[in-house]
What does this fold into?
Amino acid sequence: MWVRERLQSVRRNERGAVALIVAVIVGSGVLMGAAAISMDVGQLFAQRVQVQNGADAAALALARTCVLSGSCMASNASSLSTLIGQNGKGTLGNSLNLPSYAAGICAKNLSAATATDLPLCGASSGTFSDCLAMPSGFSGVAYIEAHTQTLINGQHVMPPIVAQALGYKGANVQACARVAFGPASPSAQNTLPLTMSYCAWKGAVGYVDAAHTGTFQNPPKGADPGYDAVANPWPATEVSVKTAKEDSSTCPTWNGHTAPGGFSWLDRFNGTCTSNVVDGWVGGNTGNSYYCSLAPYYGKMVFIPVFDCVADAIVNPIIPAGQPNATDCTSSAHGTGSTNYHIVGYAAFYVSGWHFSGNSIGSIKPPHNPPCPAGSDRCLTGWFTQALMNNVPPAPPSGTTPDFGPKAIKPVG
It folds into this structure.
């Protein structure tokens, strides 16, 4: 009797042990699943941030190279991969992207003058790993895309920590960044209170057409004044641009109108020594007097608005000559008083000196010659260069409107 009761007691204890073991096994799976969710899924989000940072850095770097050098080549991929490695754990490429971009980079809407061997970017797939659809207002603007992922040679950079014990090998996380670029587009912004004519700019840089864009000097680098005898030598020559009254030269523009020469002071913005361009137009006055202090711009690179039309009344858009109701760009008050200037672009200009009624300063460039070759002329001296503008959008490539030198890049997806 005692033996039978003892055996029954042992069996009851074993049933409890088995239940405990089953509970531990089941519970361990739940705990591991919870750990996988909290740790491995969290790591997926961390990977997403990593690859997106890399894509952003690569796209901005490639767009800058494309717009300043006129070359968008797949050979940039190696340097971009290094940059991605410095900004996030990932590499160029997207194993899920259709169509496939062999180097992880693609381009679209490049100008005919841009050298490239990159594939054409396809339309956005709308997936989380792809770039967003192109925003409105950027139709025809050149852009590049950089696609990044966490797979390198088929291996995950960041494998799962917990879930791999359950057979999960990890997910390849992808990201995309798109950057538009091109000539700086006119827009409402504060600018230097001087506007230069297309004619004056064309003559100063030797512009002929889109294939013969003229000569631009090296931009300033490093500490003021940005040039020295070794690291970044001073340009060999300076150009002198006369005021509108004293420069009567004219030339035909790409829209068939005749552009006057010279440059003019613009109406100041809120009492400052800047001017506000709105819808492509700004008011101005062609007087020779020193309108406001240019001292903050001495020995600095500035952006000068370039005009192609002067008119008593603002007209949008400018209708080319020879077409019905063509815009009158020549019979305004230009040269005699106040008028309106149609701004078509911006020129990057290093201000080395000037001479106006009431104020004059010699060249900052050694040997510091007096401004204006003729002595009595009113002028601005310096040289034209290329530079990036970060407060205006890029314009679409054009075979007619000149590229005045400044470029713009803007993330758009």
User: Anything to note?
Assistant: The helical segments are 2-69, 77-87, 198-205. Residues 13-29, 35-39 have pLDDT under 50 and may be disordered. Residues 32-182 form one domain.
